[in-house]
């Protein structure tokens, strides 16, 4: 197995009281987790780590940021990670290529798109038709942010390839800087950049792509099928810790959220972290349970299909395992 198991051994030379304490401990499991990027959009994951929810399940998380969907899936398929946190569309791409073993989605982290339409000029009663004849700095072609963005534009009677000038040749990491330097009238951005731009007066939020596109399994924890066959108990413990964090993020104060997430965002003030997380929470971008609904799975594929990026329809029952999420959420 790729997963490293660290057994907590007890010495037989120890007296009875120490033996009793050792017997109550489970094996400590190290889970290698690859996240596609570092984002406040993933707040429940960092909360689970910082609040000790994984530790209470006797799990050590070794978190690696892989910076890109392709790199994340390469890590998963090459035994560089046990679990990947990435857009569900990547599992559809990989599974359509008949991998050695299928990629299974088992716990949903975010349930909407996480981007916002930012306008250079503060909009007065924004209408989608305002984008006509504008310059729109979008996301990478084939990526979920761009597919969702185009889906929303089309459903608001805007043809992204005819009614405006769509720029897609800027790397993800440079999109915000490119807009700040003067490129485009509108831009599609994640938090906390959206909040930072508003605070600095660079741009203003005109609309939320997450609210417009509806529920989709935007970011999901997934693993190869053998992970569940070899150690389903670890998957259950992992998901149970995640579920606690999902509940916590909807109950915590903005100040507490900012403090808990701060270690993961060194260059961002706690108040900005809190504002960004609360914005996501207010539109229910964070999944409230790890369960991935079939309706959301189908909505994802509809968006991909409309963008011309869906290789084939992906069977929900085959590539989504709901039993783990159902088990941990049972009262």
A few lines on this structure:
With 331 residues, this protein is of the alpha/beta class. It has helices at residues 16-23, 43-50, 53-56, 69-77, 88-95, 144-155, 175-180, 193-200, 209-213, 225-251, 254-261, 270-282, 294-306, 316-319, 323-329; strands at 4-6, 28-35, 59-65, 83-86, 103-110, 115-119, 135-137, 165-167, 186-190, 204-208, 219-224.
Descriptors for this entry?
alpha/beta; 6-stranded mixed beta sheet; 331 residues; disordered N terminus; signal; D-Maltodextrin-Binding Protein, domain 2; NitT/TauT family transport system substrate-binding protein
Outline the secondary-structure elements:
Elements lengths: L3 E3 L9 H8 L4 E8 L7 H8 L2 H4 L2 E7 L3 H9 L5 E4 L1 H8 L7 E8 L4 E5 L15 E3 L6 H12 L9 E3 L7 H6 L5 E5 L2 H8 L3 E5 H5 L5 E6 H27 L2 H8 L8 H13 L11 H13 L9 H4 L3 H7 L2
Parallel strand pairs: 2-3, 2-4, 7-8, 7-9
Antiparallel strand pairs: 1-2, 4-11, 5-11, 6-9, 6-10
